[in-house]
Amino acid sequence: METTAVGTRVDRALVDQWRELTARQVRIGNALEQALEQQHGLSCQEFEVLDQLAECAPEDKPRVQDIADVVSITQSALSRLIGRLEKQGLIERRLCEVDRRGINVFLTDAGRARHATARPTYCEVLAGQLAPGDAADAAAPKRGLGEILESRRDTSDRHRYGATE
After folding, report:
1. What is the CATH number of the domain that holds 62?
2. Are 103 and 95 in contact, with CB atoms under 8 Å apart?
3. pLDDT bucket at 161, cuts 50 / 70 / 90
4. Is 57 part of any domain?
5. How much is the pLDDT for 28?
6. How many domains does the chain have?
7. Half-sphere exposure of 161 (CA within 13 A, CB side)
8. pLDDT of residue 22
9. Is residue 103 part of a domain?
10. Taking the CA of residue 10 as centre, how many other CA atoms within 13 Å lie in the half-sphere pointing to its CB?
């Protein structure tokens, strides 16, 4: 099947859009990670688990599997993360009353307090990173790896052969 010029433009636009989306996600994730760690001693994933638990009604009894369904980490990594949060006294694990094989997870008072102090930081970072018409995003060059490497080659060639701009 032959690709038309229009198909190439459409494909390129989709790829560029995907790359822009993933780059923005990484920038936001890094900003959240840095702010939460520095100001509250929490990783972004730890905060996400606390945040999800904080949104539960008092009568809810979330299981580890329920949390795994809404946070973007593996169940194995989640189990280790829950262990760290429990060791810090931020959450408590209890055997599920309905199914003794399951584990319910609850925020402790300390976990609620840490979440309450970290939530404004989280929202501030999101507001700063997701602001409409973000000048940093608008000004960021939208170039692919090939273009970046070509630009480096051109610069390297100019320096190598003594050319000046």
Report:
1. 1.10.10.10
2. yes
3. low
4. yes
5. 95
6. 1
7. 7
8. 94
9. yes
10. 5
Look at residues 104, 116, 118, 117 and name the one whose alpha carbon lies nearest to residue 58.
Answer: 104
Domain that holds residue 154: 5-160
pLDDT one-digit tens code per residue, 14-32: 999 999 999 999 999 999 9
Element containing residue 152 per DSSP (H, E): helix 145-160
Count CA atoms closer than 13 A to 65's CA, side-chain side. Answer: 5
Is 1 or 164 the better-scoring residue by pLDDT?
164
Mean pLDDT for 111-127 is 97
**Residue that has been written with the tokens 């990484």 in this structure:** 26
The whole-model pTM stands at 0.74
Give me the torsion for CA of 78, 83, 86, 91, rounded to 10°. Answer: 20
Residues with Cβ within 8 Å of 35's Cβ and at least 6 positions away in sequence, in order, are: 121, 122, 124, 125
